[in-house]
Amino acid sequence: MNLDPYDRGMIKNSPYVKKRVIKGNIIAILDSIIEKRGLNLITPHSRVAKKGEIHELIATEEAEASPGKIVNNVAYVCFFEVSEGGVIVRGDEVYISGKFIGKIAGFDDTHMPNHQNIVLYTDKKKTGLELKINLDENILFKKE
Question: For residue 18, what pLDDT is reported?
């Protein structure tokens, strides 16, 4: 029996009224685009990011990208290390060194428990190299 409240349609609106900004630093810059990746976005709309964890950021232009959907057209942005943990939620805005990058679309567990794939929606997907990001730049995840 599936007990996930998101999957069962029990949660209609985000329960997150206020939450801390999640902070981190870029530790690897990526430069790859894949057209048929097949990322399976998990049903939960949120994931905890703990201090010291390392996760991957992936961008897509697929407007329908959301929990429970498959995402194919992606650009790999970066890996980052969490310096101040918290809860990352679908719809959160992502900033690298103050520049808006996109909004969280969902999460893929392909590489868990090694790292979480965090997928963001953006109007024009770009790799980390195309975004001209640098090592040790800061990354923020905050409620829209």
Answer: 86
The gap from C-alpha 23 to its chain's centroid, in whole angstroms, comes to 13
CA geometry: angle at 139 spanning 51 and 67, to 5°? 80
Which tokens in the block code for residue 23? Answer: 């902070």
- Using CB atoms within 10 Å of the CB of residue 81, give its burial: 0 to 12 exposed, 13 to 18 middle, 19+ buried: middle
Determine the Cα angle at 134 with ends 129 and 138, to 5°. Answer: 120
Decide: residue 142, CB within 10 A, 0-12 exposed, 13-18 middle, 19+ buried. Answer: middle
Nearest to 75 by CA among 117, 126, 110: 126
Query: Which helix (H) or strand (E) is 70 found in, with range?
Result: strand 70-71
pTM, to two decimals: 0.89
Residues 6+ apart with CB under 8 A from 58: 39, 74, 75, 76, 77, 108, 117, 118, 119, 120
pLDDT, tens digit (0-9, with 9 covering 90-100), for 1-54: 566 666 666 676 777 788 999 999 999 999 999 999 999 999 999 999 999 999
Task: Please list the residues that pair with 19 across neighbouring strands.
Answer: none
3-state SS assignment for residue 125: coil
